Structure formats: C-alpha cells, structure tokens
Amino acid sequence: MEHGSFTNNSHASFTLAEEDHTLANAVRFMLNQDPRVTLAGYSIPHPSLDRVNIRVQTTGDPAREVLKDACQELMLMNRHVRSVFDKAVAEFKVEQARLKAEEEEREKAKEELKKQREQLESMDIEGN
Amino acid sequence: MVTEEDKIFAKNFNIDQLPDVPAGLPPHLKLKQSRVVPKNVAPLNTDSAIYSGGYVTTGGEESVKVESFYENFKVDVISCTETDIEFDMVGIDSSFANAFRRILIAEVPSMAIEKVLIANNTSLVIDEVLAHRIGLIPIAVDPRLFEYLSENDQPNEKNTIVFKLHVKCPKGESRLKVLTSELQWLPNGSEFLKEAKGSNAKPKTYTSFSCSQDSLPEFADNPITLSHLDILIAKLSPGQEIELEAHAVKGIGKTHAKWSPVGTAWYRMLPEVVLKGEVEDELAERLVKACPQKVFDIEDMGNGGKRATVAQPRKCTLCKECVRDDELVDFVDLRSVKDHFIYNIESTGSLPPDVLFTEAVKILENKCERVLAALS
Ligand code: SF4
C-alpha cells in the first residue's frame, strides 16, 4: 500500500503487511545506497501490528520506482549470496572428503607396513 | 593580476592530486567506517555508512558498497557437520547478516507436534505439561516434503505426521523412564476412532490418510524418526500408564519456538586486536596472563628479552579484560571488523545447517518478490 501525494510522486510512504525488521532493515540499507534517495527510513507503528512503514524521498524520481529498484537489487544480491555460499560449502565438502581419503590411505599404508613387519619377524623366528 | 600561469594552474587544479593529500579515505575515517570500537560506555561507530554519499566528499570509491559487493563478497566455511556449521561471511552489511539470522530462527519452516490426543495418562506429569513437552521434541524430517495444514483442511498424509506413545510401568517393577525412543511413527495415520455419529456409520479416525506414508517414495526406505531418541518425556511409577497420539504439522518459529529449525543461529563480527607499541618483558607476561582466551603469545627476542604478539585474534571475545589494566590499556586496541561475520548455525535435525541457510536466503528473496509484485 502506498501513501503519497498526487502532485509529487518523489515522496511517499509504503506499508508492507506481514513484514518486520527482517525485510525493512535490508530494504532501508539498499535504499540508502541509492544516490537518488535523499531520505529513507522505516518504522513499525506498534509492536503488536504486523506491518512496517517505509518512507522514501528522492531527488525527483518516483519513489515507487526507486523502492522497486531497491527490492530488485536486494533480490539479486541474495541470489549472489546463495550461489557463493553453495559453492563454498561444496568446495569445503570436497576438501573434507579428500582429507578423509588421504587419512584412510595413510592408515592403510600403516597397516600394510605393520603386516609386513610382522611377517618378517615371524620369518626370523622360523629361521632361528 | 592573474597571470597566464595562474590560469593554467587553476584549470588543472585537483585537490586529490596534490602530493600531500592521501588517496581515498584518511586513516582515521577509514577506521571509523570499517571498524566498531568497544568502549567502556558503549561501542563506537556501530552504524554502517548512513547514506550513499556518506563518505563521498572525502573518499569517493568506498561510498557505495553495492557496486563492489559482487566482486568482494566471500564465504569461507570453517567447519560443517550434520548439525552445525561455522562459516565466515565477508563483504556484506549487517542488515543482511541479521535478516538471515532472523529468518533462520523465525521463518524457516519445520515440522513439530501440534496436537496431542491423550487417551490415558495416569502419570505424575499432567496432560498440559506432557503435551507441551512432547511439542518441543525435534523431528528429523524434511519439511519441504509437507504442506501447511490450514484451518479447513483435513489432516492427510501430505500435511500431518502421526506418532503413537503407549507405555505402562508394570506393578512390582522399578520406576520407568519414558524416552522419545518410545514414540512410534504411524505411517497410516491416527488409530484412534472418533465417536460415530450414526449408529451404523463406519467409525472414522482423527486423520484421513488416502495412502500410507511409507508407500510414498520419499519415506519408503527412509522412515520418519525423531532427531534424538534419548529425550526424557516423563517418569512412570509402577502401575502408571500413558497412552497418546501426537500429530505433527508444518509451521514456522514465529508462531511458536517449537517450529524453529535451529537450536540457535548467531553471528559475531571478526575481532581485531592491535598492539599500539612494543609490549616487552614483564608487561608482556602480564598481558599474556590477563587474557582468558589466550589471544597473545610471547616471542623471544634475540637478546633474551621478550615481546608480546597477537597470536590468535579470532579467539578474542572482546571481554576487555586486557584493557582493564592501567598500563596495558595504552598498548592494546580492540576493534571489530564491520563487514566480516563469523556465522554459526545449529540445526535441530530437520535439515542440514547449510541447507537451512540457503532456505533462509530463498525466503528473503521471496519477500522481495512479494513486495515487487505488490508494487507493480
Ligand atoms: S578483550 Fe579479552 S579476549 Fe580479547 S584480547 Fe583482551 S583479554 Fe583477550
């Protein structure tokens, strides 16, 4: 829902129902990064209300478009976060698997060596 | 009188190119912009750049963070197990880190027991308390395989999981512990019969499953269990008995904490410990001893002297024990890096913690989409 004026669409407040600090704070951050924005802020009118008000004032562009751009950019950034995170986790798991394999390899080699040594020792005894 | 030379000078004048004007932000502003400084009264410089032009007059290139985000954002996984993950998230604003944390705790769905039908309870634990305890038991099942049960829905195999608990402590034996391992999954749904209205109508149960859940491909060779089988639910004395059915549905932590898929999710900024001068000999030993986290270490200098070094700044908890010392306070500088987060997620067992994080990010994306749809 948008509250603005008919004559000047560069200043407007928006009410987002069923949202809280989670989204509003991130959106505010995005808005504040936009050079077209002169003022951006949000508030929750009352803790028992399930909504936030976001205020956007711009240098001239329609506030609605600027807010839309902020959401769009936020979404893209989230996508980027997800891809980077997934890649990092995948890499970590591969690395972990490799380390484990190496460890097993080393264990095996140790076992092998021990067996050989035992064999040698038993041979020695027989020789005596 | 303005000479030709003055004119040329004025035309080419650029303050940033003067030899004694440093490029970028001067160090004291850089520090203000990128570090939080814990002080005794309150932490300083906690906010990030308030608006896009925040440092434009002095810095220029660092003023807008969004542009450099795509190149600079980095994730580094420190450890990852079935239930816990620790990773570093670098180059992101705290508003994001906090949004993810809030979503993990309150908005990522999971399955939890919502209805407890008690047929018999002669134990010491009263029905309400027993039901509450059972509600908090984490269930190890992927919530994405289920739908929400809305008010007018019949509980069916797509939105409800049914468990049964029937234990009796025989007379003449010792006291019995009822653990979560006694809860038994009923893939066919409820076994309790509703009171029949008509005399010859077929009695109905409390759920209407159209097929057994273990015939579904997801659960065929992967039966639904609880995350922990050793949680104490109640204790029974000889002769006491509990018989009940527990119905689990999908929900989110905002409604009730039992639906929170994480034990907890938290982050902290990377601590930075800087020695402002040489801390030597007796003072160095005092510094090492003062820190409970063993952040500092002693380095031997060639001439038999000792010098303190910062060995493990990551372990610092910013307890400020080291700056309580009147002498040491002049040597130690404590700070937090504003855009470097050490993130921890503990899963309760429904999903691995890395999947939980991706789900949280997806939820934030959906929120943006919703706003976009409403605005267009
Ligand atoms: S703040 Fe505490 S943990 Fe950090 S260096 Fe000082 S004494 Fe050690």
UniProtKB/TrEMBL annotation, chain A:
- Compositionally biased tracts (Basic and acidic residues): 101-120
Provide a GO CC annotation, any one. Answer: RNA polymerase I complex
**Region entry Disordered, spans:** 101-128
Q: Which residues form the DNA-directed RNA polymerase RBP11-like dimerisation domain?
A: 12-82
Q: Which UniProt keywords apply?
A: DNA-directed RNA polymerase, Nucleus, Transcription
Q: Name one GO molecular function term.
A: DNA-directed RNA polymerase activity
Q: What are its GO biological-process terms?
A: transcription by RNA polymerase III; transcription elongation by RNA polymerase I
Q: Which Pfam families match?
A: RNA_pol_L_2 (PF13656)
Cite the SUPFAM superfamilies for this sequence.
Answer: RBP11-like subunits of RNA polymerase
The places in or outside the cell where this protein is found are: Nucleus
Quick one: where is this thing mainly located? nucleus
Source organism, top-level taxon: Eukaryota
Q: What family is this protein classified in?
A: Belongs to the archaeal Rpo11/eukaryotic RPB11/RPC19 RNA polymerase subunit family.
> What protein is this chain from?
DNA-directed RNA polymerase RBP11-like dimerisation domain-containing protein
Where is the organism placed in the taxonomic lineage, from the top?
Answer: Eukaryota, Viridiplantae, Streptophyta, Embryophyta, Tracheophyta
Automatic annotation (TrEMBL), chain B:
Location, primary (coarse class): nucleus
Keyword set for this entry? DNA-directed RNA polymerase, Nucleus, Transcription
GO CC aspect terms: RNA polymerase I complex; RNA polymerase III complex
Q: Name one GO biological process term.
A: DNA-templated transcription
* Domain annotation DNA-directed RNA polymerase RpoA/D/Rpb3-type: ranges: 84-374
GO MF terms here are: DNA binding; DNA-directed RNA polymerase activity; protein dimerization activity
List localization entries. Nucleus
Instruction: Note the superkingdom of the native organism.
Output: Eukaryota
Record keyword Nucleus present: yes
A Pfam entry, by short name: RNA_pol_A_bac
- What InterPro entries does this protein map onto? DNA-dir_RNA_pol_30-40kDasu_CS (IPR001514), DNA-dir_RNA_pol_insert (IPR011262), DNA-dir_RNA_pol_RpoA/D/Rpb3 (IPR011263), RBP11-like (IPR036603), RNAP_Rpo3/Rpb3/RPAC1 (IPR022842), RNAPI/III_AC40 (IPR033901), RNApol_insert_sf (IPR036643), Rpo3/RPB3_RNA_Pol_subunit (IPR050518)
- Quote the CDD domains the UniProt record gives: RNAP_I_II_AC40
User: Which segments cross the bilayer?
Assistant: none
What does the sequence similarity comment in the record state about its family?
Belongs to the archaeal Rpo3/eukaryotic RPB3 RNA polymerase subunit family.
Under which name does UniProt file this protein? DNA-directed RNA polymerases I and III subunit RPAC1
Q: Which organism is it from?
A: Microthlaspi erraticum
